[in-house]
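User: Let's play a game. I give you a shape written as tokens, and you guess the letters that built it. Ready? Here's round one.
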């Protein structure tokens, strides 16, 4: 009887938690509306508030409240019956929060303006964003908003084509351009939610509810995708579609999903070997395996060639890939680079550590391939393991929204143990914004020096390691439904 009464109160409790989270987002929009700050290019939460300690405190309180209500909502969904009412409330909250945050100024990142300007370079000037640098167009009315004026595009050709089409519509209106990109981001956020729900439904109704809530209620996903407009929703969608395609024995479609994702943002391409080895393990005969390899190769080469045709100007077109070794931020390997640069010049250290990172990534890929082949590891688990390895061990560049890659994969097969440390990591990653925009300035430190990088490392990765250690030291508690356990 008591349990039935608790279940009856679940929609009311979830409604209260949802209104609390939505109310915080509304307050943030009222404090940082687009229409007010659209005339202040390259402004962020630090510059707009003059790095006020009181604003930093209020933002910290907002983050703690949002994550506290998020954890409470997830545990409520885990313990409650998977009712239609709860599922609808989860979706309404995701849609409402995303719609509200379309109106907030992107106070923690300028990436959306890089998307806009490079799209404008192609649509208005006919410039190749892989060859021509944005600083060639300093008189353009949108140049002042640009965050990376001296670097070529960091994204794939399909993303540049998409950005160019939106820039052609937006023209010189920063309002229109921002709304177009944020509208696309909100759409990808919701579509990812749909695919997560579909994949989790195969495990059971409870997994569908919890998985949907993990994604659609997440402060990290809602903020980074819909408020800031990051294009990682498309990257995540490609991974989810690949998992879905493999579950239906459609390896060609899985290949296409990852290659298209890689032509938007390069990361999904590192997952292709895992799909290949999964397919080779799946098919019993060598003729079938050879056909699979040929099909995957044809799809990959064909899509890559078609996408690069509008931009190809020789090997220089790919220089954005080689320039990645110069990007260092908030990752263990970046701390290694800055530490060694105290003895040697940083330009001589970067290529060495970059090659080390590539070797570590190759090791992680080989390790997951071995588990798929020898232990029949499912693709979602292999993706999750490889991306965790990449973010912690093999990458020199970390940003808070990268944790979304893991969150989406967790939502497909939710477990409490993984939620504990992924949730802590999401919170600590976003906490680093307080360092970036407030604390480092108060200390008189810079982010691109060793002590600043060490502080990032402590704030972002130490809570993760503690949470992971605690959760793996304990015997995993059984899920409400046996079907929630990972396959």
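Assistant: Ready! My guess for every position:
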């Amino acid at each position: 009887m008591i349990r039935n009464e608790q279940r009856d109160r679940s929609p009311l409790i979830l409604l209260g938690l949802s209104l609390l989270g939505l109310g915080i987002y509304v307050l943030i929009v009222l404090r940082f509306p687009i229409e007010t700050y659209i005339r202040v290019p390259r402004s962020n939460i630090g510059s707009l508030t003059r790095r006020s300690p009181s604003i930093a405190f209020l933002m910290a309180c907002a983050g703690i409240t949002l994550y506290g209500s998020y954890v409470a909502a997830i545990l409520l969904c885990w313990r409650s019956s998977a009712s239609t009412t709860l599922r609808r409330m989860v979706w309404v909250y995701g849609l409402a929060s995303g719609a509200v945050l379309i109106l907030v100024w992107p106070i923690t990142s300028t990436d959306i303006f890089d998307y806009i300007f490079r799209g404008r370079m192609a649509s208005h000037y006919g410039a190749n964003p892989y060859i021509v640098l944005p600083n060639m167009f300093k008189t353009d009315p949108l140049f002042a908003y640009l965050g990376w004026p001296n670097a070529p595009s960091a994204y794939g050709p399909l993303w540049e084509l998409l950005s160019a089409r939106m820039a052609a519509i937006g023209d010189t209106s920063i309002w229109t351009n921002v709304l177009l990109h944020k509208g696309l981001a909100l759409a990808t956020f919701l579509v990812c939610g749909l695919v997560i729900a579909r994949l989790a439904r195969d495990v059971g109704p409870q997994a569908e509810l919890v998985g949907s809530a993990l994604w659609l209620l997440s402060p990290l996903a809602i903020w980074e995708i819909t408020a800031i407009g990051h294009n990682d929703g498309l990257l995540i969608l490609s991974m989810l579609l690949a998992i879905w395609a493999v579950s239906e024995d459609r390896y060609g479609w899985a290949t296409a999903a990852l290659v298209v994702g890689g032509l938007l943002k390069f990361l999904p391409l590192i997952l292709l070997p895992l799909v290949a080895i999964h397919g080779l393990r799946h098919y019993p005969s060598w003729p079938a395996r050879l056909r699979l390899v040929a099909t995957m190769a044809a799809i990959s080469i064909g899509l890559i060639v078609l996408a690069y045709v509008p931009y190809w100007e020789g090997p220089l077109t790919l220089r954005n890939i080689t320039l990645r070794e110069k990007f260092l931020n908030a990752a263990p390997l970046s701390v290694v680079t800055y530490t060694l640069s105290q003895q040697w010049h940083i330009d001589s250290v970067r290529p060495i550590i970059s090659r080390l990172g590539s070797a570590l990534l190759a090791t992680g890929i080989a390790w997951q391939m071995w588990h798929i082949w020898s232990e029949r590891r499912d693709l979602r688990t292999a993706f999750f393991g490889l991306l965790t390895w990449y973010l912690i061990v093999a990458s020199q560049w970390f940003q808070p929204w990268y944790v979304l890659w893991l969150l989406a994969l967790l939502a497909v097969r939710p477990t409490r143990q993984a939620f504990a440390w992924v949730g802590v990591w999401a919170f600590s990653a976003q906490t680093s914004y307080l360092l970036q925009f407030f604390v480092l300035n108060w200390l008189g430190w810079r982010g691109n020096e060793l002590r600043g990088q060490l502080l990032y490392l402590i704030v972002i990765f130490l809570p993760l390691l503690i949470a992971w250690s605690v959760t793996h030291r304990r015997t995993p508690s059984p899920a409400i439904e046996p079907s929630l356990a990972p396959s």
